Fold these 2 entries.
Entry 1:
Amino acid sequence: MMKSLIFFGPPGVGKGTQAKLLSKELAIPHISTGDMLRKAVSRKTELGRRAQAIMESGGLVPDDVMVGIVREELMTPGASGGFVLDGFPRTLEQATALSSLLAELGIDDYTVVNFAVDDDEVVKRLSSRLVCDTDGSIYNSLIDDLSVGSKCPRCTGRLIQRDDDREETVRKRLKVYHSTTKPLVEYYSKKGKVLNLNGVGPIAEVQRELRRLVVKEI
Ligand code: AMP
C-alpha cells in the first residue's frame, strides 16, 4: 500500500514537526529539502556553499538543483514504500517536475496535505522556534521553557535559533510563499489531491487531526 504524502504550507506551520512524527509512525522516510540543505551548509559541500546565502536571505534555491536532490531521494529503495515530502515543491516548475517524477515511478495515489495558519501566527512561532544543533529536534521558547543555548532534552546537543528565523527573514519567506508557493494549491486541487488541515493548536491535537485525515486516506 502506498503512503505518498506531500506536506504543504507556509514556513512555521508545523509541517516538519508533524512530518517527523508521522514518518516514524508509518515507518516511511521524511524527505525534508530544508533539512537536506541545512546539512549541506553545515558540511560545507558544494551544494551548501551555493545554498547558504540564498537561505539566509529567505529566497529559494534554484529549481534545477532542488529537483535533482528530490529525484535522487525518491529513486532510492527506501522511498519505494512511501514517503513524507516536506518543503517541496515550492514553485510551479518544481511541481511539474515532481508530477513527471511520480509518473515515472508509477505513483498516482499521492496526497497533498495543506497546512493552514495565518501570517501573524507564523511570525510568532518562528521567532520563538528553537532547533537542536545535533538531532534537529524542534521546540518553542513560548511553550517549552527552553531558550537559545539550553541543552536539548532529547540528546546532548544545544538549542539554537535558525539564521532564517529572524523576523525580517521570516517576513521575506512569507512573501515568497504567498507569491510563488501558495498558488500550487490550485495546481493540486485541480488534480483532486488536496486535504486541508488546520495547523493551529497543540502539536498532539494537530497530529490527531492529521492521522484522522491521512490514515483514512492511506
Ligand atoms: P524549510 O526548512 O523548508 O523552511 O527550508 C529552508 C530554506 O531552504 C528555504 O527558505 C529555502 O531557502 C530553502 N529551500 C528548502 N526547500 C526548498 C525548495 N523546495 N525550493 C527552493 N528552496 C528551498
Entry 2:
Amino acid sequence: MSAVLAAVDLTPFNTLALPGRAAAYLKITDPGQLTVEALQDTRRFVLGGGSNLVLRGDFDGLLLHMAIGGRRLLREDAEAWYIEAGAGENWHGFVQWTLEQGWPGLENLALIPGSVGAAPIQNIGAYGLEVGERIHSLQVWDFKKKALITVDRKGCHFGYRDSVFKQHGWHTDGRMVIVSVVFRLPKAWQANCRYHDVAEELAARGIADPAPRDIAEAIVAIRQRKLPDPAKLPNVGSFFQNPVVSRDKCAALLAIHPDMPRYPQNDGRTKLAAGWLIEQAGWKGRDLGPVGMYEEQALVLVNRGGATGSDVERTMQAVQEAVRDGFGVELIPEPVFL
Ligand code: EPU
C-alpha cells in the first residue's frame, strides 16, 4: 500500500496543466485505505483523472488520488449484463474493453477523458446519452458513517451534468468517495444515432446499419476533430454547462436571433448552446493572457501555456460577462474548483 506523501506537484494530475501542490497526497489503490483513522478528520479532496478540475493554487489538505482498478462481469440475466469497474479505471479504456467483450451500450460516451468513478458525479453525457442511463449502482465509502454503502441509480438523483454528489457538495468536501461502479447494459441493444453529428459522420462513412464499434469509431473521429487533445492543448472539455432558460426568455432571444440553436426540455424550458452564445459574443478563438476559448469549439477553454488558476478565472469571468451583456444569460462553469 502506498504512503502519504508531502508537497506533491499536481500539475501532471490536472488536464488544464495548472500549477499547485497538495500538502499531503495519498494514492488509493484499495478501498481498505479509506478506513484508516488518520484520514477521518483532515480536509480531503478526491481526485480522479483531473479532467474536470480547475486548480486555483496549492491545496492545504489531503489529496486522495483514486487509483482503484479492476473490471469484470458481475452477473447477467435475460435482459442485461452487469459490469463492475473500479473508480480509478480510465473511462475510455473501460468503454473500449466493454465493446471488445461484446457488451455494448456505452459507445456514445467513447473518448471522454477522466475516470470511471468521476463519471457519475457530473453524469457525463455526449451524443445523445448520459452515463446515468447505464448505471445500476455505486459502491461509496462514506466518511461520516464510516461505512461502505451502496447507492442505487435512483439514489444518485441524476440530472443534466448533475447528481446527488454535486447537489450535496460531496464532490468537494471529501465526504463521499466512489470506489466502484456497476453498469447495467441491456442486451436489447439499439443504435443511438439521434445526434445530428453522429448521423452525419456515419453517412459520410457509408454505414447505414451501424454496429456498436462503428458508433464508437464515428464518435472518436468527431471528438478528435472538434475537441483539443488535453495532452497537446490543456483543457477540461466543455467549460460551461449549456444554460437552460424559461419559455419567455427563449422567445425573447429568438425574436432577435431566429437561428439560435435550442433544445426544448420536458419541463417547458429550453436548453441553449453555450458554444453558440460564446461564439456570438466574439469569444471563439479569443484569448485573454494565456487562457482562451478554442477556435474549433468555443465552449472549450484552453491553457495556451503557463497559465495559473487566476488566469483561468479571469478569462472565465470575461466570457461570462460578454454573454451576460449580449444575451442576458448566465453561464455556469462545468468543472470543479479547488
Ligand atoms: N456551436 C457554435 N459555435 C461553437 C460551438 C458550438 O455555434 O463554437 C453550436 C453548434 O453549431 C451546435 C450547438 O452549438 O448548434 C451545440 O454544439 P455541439 O453539438 O458541439 O455540442 P455542445 O452543446 O457544445 C455538448 C456537451 C459536450 C458533448 C457534446 C456532444 C455540454 C456542456 N457539452 O456540447 O460535452 O460532447 O454536446 O454531445 O453539455 C463536456 O461536457 O465536457 C463535453 C465535451
